[in-house]
């Protein structure tokens, strides 16, 4: 669970996608979730969009609490034509990135439809700080339900103050924000006319081994031997972690910051998950167009990783696995790998807004423990990794927030009861997903009704349809973007 950045893109911005769990996580923490996409990395990328602040209620579900706070948002009025629709990009588990106010498929749609564009940052992420710190008591105000109520209040007030109440509002989001986009239409149908819910994991589940099953299939789609070699390497490493005599060599092989110490199963699981995260991240974001957002490593693709794993001149599969780790470290300018689980606990339990996990890690993992689960465990035989079972993931909920395994299970069941899981009953929501993206396993990949269509894009990864179009985009990706536009055109006439 470690600060995976699988998670979350503008997909994050937009909706933010899940977070980078690889060695890179050393820099930002690794949340288990959606992330890299996190609208995130607060780079302006030359954007000139002013930070604006909205007075938001602290607790929408407690009438006796009148406290408020300032929530960050951005506006792009360049395409707006009087009477046009209003587009609302939903922020997710990371900072709202103003680069998305300049580029992205939603702006292409906005230009064609004369839309006014807002992007609202999610509470507790980026600069939107509702509370003095990230204590567990304060994090109780962090939930998808509060976030949806934020969106509802924002939409209501903006409608009144800008004369947009009777305009048709369309919600956009990717990854977790994609789920929010769907749920916003579901729970507040009087406020949002339609939604584009990209790469949205709408079904909550404690154990999510299917994520790694998709990783296997995605690697195999490049080279059938690739996931087999990854499995051999992961199994070899797991076996060596049982013998302290190997620790010095492992330290050198993977360029660790200090001599490897394995004192518990949690230590071993953390290390094994960290290395698996390299493959998980690359698969999740394979060949996307995230460069404009300030994302690094977009040149590292499934093809690149499988090329390394298949290169016999590098040595046995274990040695190739270490080569991948070093490649990722070089790409993200990580000098050495900190594999200390104790350091991870220290970082994740730091409640300061200046803490190492305050960028999103502490907050997102809290949401997984209190609402979603989504734990990408190795509890399936049909995936390429070993060593980080569900028990390892759930124990972190107790360590970080005093949330027991039983409480996680109850919370996840309540989430599906509240939103409906796969059984969504609504209208005018489109669900784009990519076949390469492991998150599609928890999404809508077949039409529910004609008013709840799925767009399943073969060969594409997480939130691919949200990124700016590129010259090397697959034909089916371009067709999917066009199809979504036609749906919006049709729905805005209703």
Q: Topology of this protein?
A:
Blueprint: E1 6-7, H1 25-28, E2 34-35, E3 52-57, E4 68-76, E5 86-90, H2 105-113, E6 116-120, H3 136-139, H4 144-161, E7 169-174, H5 176-187, E8 194-198, E9 205-207, H6 210-222, H7 226-240, H8 247-253, H9 265-284, H10 302-309, H11 317-331, H12 341-348, H13 361-372, E10 373-375, H14 390-401, H15 405-419, E11 429-434, E12 454-457, H16 475-492
Parallel strand pairs: 5-6, 5-7, 7-8, 8-11, 9-10, 11-12
Antiparallel strand pairs: 1-2, 3-4, 4-6
Helix pairs in contact: 4-5, 6-9, 7-11, 13-14, 13-15
Proportion of beta-strand residues: 5-15%
- How many strands, what sense, and barrel or not for the largest sheet? 8 strands, mixed
Number of strands: 12
**Terminus-to-terminus distance:** 43 Å
Percent in helix:
25-40%
- CA gyration radius, whole angstroms: 21 Å
Q: How do the helices and strands follow one another from N- to C-terminus?
A: EHEEEEHEHHEHEEHHHHHHHHEHHEEH
The secondary structure category is alpha/beta
Return the average pLDDT rounded to an integer: 90
The low-confidence runs, each spanning 5 or more residues with pLDDT under 50, are 2-10, 12-47
Characterize the structure shown.
This protein is an alpha/beta fold. 38% of the residues lie in helices and 11% in strands. It has helices at residues 25-28, 105-113, 136-139, 144-161, 176-187, 210-222, 226-240, 247-253, 265-284, 302-309, 317-331, 341-348, 361-372, 390-401, 405-419, 475-492, and strands at 6-7, 34-35, 52-57, 68-76, 86-90, 116-120, 169-174, 194-198, 205-207, 373-375, 429-434, 454-457. An eight-stranded mixed β-sheet has the order 3-4-6-5-7-8-11-12, with helices on both faces. A two-stranded antiparallel sheet has the order 1-2. A two-stranded parallel ribbon has the order 9-10.
